[in-house]
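Subject: sequence -> structure tokens, single chain

Hey, anyone have a minute? Need the predicted structure for the following. Not urgent.
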Amino acid sequence: MSLDPKGRLAIPARFRMAFPADQQNDIILTRGFDPCITGYYSDSWQEFQKIFYGNELSREEMDLIEREFVGRKLESTFDKQGRVTLPPHLIKYAHLEGLSEVTVIGIRNRIEIWNPNVYDEIRAEKEQVIQGLRQKLRTS
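Reply:
Had a minute. Here:
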């Protein structure tokens, strides 16, 4: 996917259309646990937040989550071309500075926006885990 110098990224219609019909115009962007930008529709953002509040986390862990994921989020709207402007702090976090091409993937209730090189490196690192899962799923 193309990222322009102004930080605008066209999100493919197939990803936007996967959002519930009444939530296809808006997106909530935040950092991922991995070095990527994660985009949620409104309901999936609420589900994401419930994960934290439903677990027994220390005050320090909650403060960190609220600062890094909630406090740094950006609520945005897709423009007429289906583009969203990525904020500079998330571009920096995901190592997207100076890139004209990024990798966008859809996962259940969210999208992830990656530096293609970082994504390939992480995929290579996780290949052994994937093969282990493959074997585990075959035997189940």
